Task: structure prediction
Amino acid sequence: MAVNTQINSGNRGYHVIHRYPHADFVSLNEPELRMAAHNRHAPLEQVIESVCGRMGTQKVAITRGTKGVLVHDCVAKNFHPVPALASKVIDRVGAGDAFLSLAALCAAKGLPAEITGFIGSVAAALDVQVVGNRESIGPVPLAKYISTLMK
Result:
């Protein structure tokens, strides 16, 4: 089970990730994680580990905008930072959803945390280059972007 909870003005403080115990993969942005943990100032890694321990999840991905994503393998207890991969940003709305959609598939297939974070980040990078939801992320653009990044 993959879960992403989002904070908005109507659910601030009430719809946190802890409402979904035993999720296999969790994807949040940093403010959502810190709100769930009630911790504004501790190092990010420490906050992630506390949420992992409380939820019993296998992998946690924390999206951080221009700082990229930090994926934690809660079982192996290691962190995998992935830089932001977008070359241009037009509209960032939906980037977390794009990240979740492909990262969750990777996690479900048992891929390593670093690959899960990378593929999710590629999806987010493609998403921020389009206004709104005008285009979906197809396999061909995804493969081309990965190929470009690997060169």
Observations:
- The mean pLDDT is 89.
- Helices lie at 30-37, 44-55, 95-108, 113-127, 139-150.
- The chain is about 40% helix and 15% strand.
